[in-house]
Design a protein that fits this description.
The protein has about 110 residues and is mainly β. The chain contains no helices and eleven strands. Strands 2, 4, 5, 6, 9, 10 and 11 form a seven-stranded mixed beta sheet that branches. A four-stranded antiparallel beta sheet has the order 1-3-8-7, with no helix packed on it.
Length: about 110
């Protein structure tokens, strides 16, 4: 069984920061690319960022470039999404996933509100 357990998230004011964590178990975490997606109410799930197995290569969608940072610690079997300068439009449920294993975290709500 492959598991991804998320933590972090919550309510933050515009311009604030949050960090999401995604802890893996049941597989060799360091062998796989990890992606972060989000889904706002009424919208389709969309890619936010990805990080290669080694962490050397990262990808960001344009709408988070310069604000979000994806990272991972393979010794801790954990990936992170640092979110800075949060905006109202960042409000969504955020998911981590290992696409190759078709495994998703449970999702965590991020709400940006004044």
């Amino acid at each position: 069984q492959f598991y991804l357990v998320q933590s972090g998230g919550g309510l933050v004011q515009p311009g604030g920061s949050l960090r999401l964590s995604c802890s893996a178990s049941g597989f060799v975490f360091g062998r796989y690319l990890v992606s972060w997606y989000r889904q706002a109410l009424g919208n389709e799930r969309e890619l936010v960022a990805s990080i290669s197995s080694s962490g050397e290569t990262v990808h960001y969608e344009d709408f988070v470039k310069g604000r979000f940072t994806v990272s991972r610690d393979n010794d801790k079997n954990t990936a992170y999404l640092q979110m800075n300068s949060l905006q109202f439009d960042d409000t969504a449920v955020y998911f981590c996933t290992v696409p190759t294993l078709a495994t998703w975290g449970q999702g965590t709500q991020v709400t940006v509100s004044s």
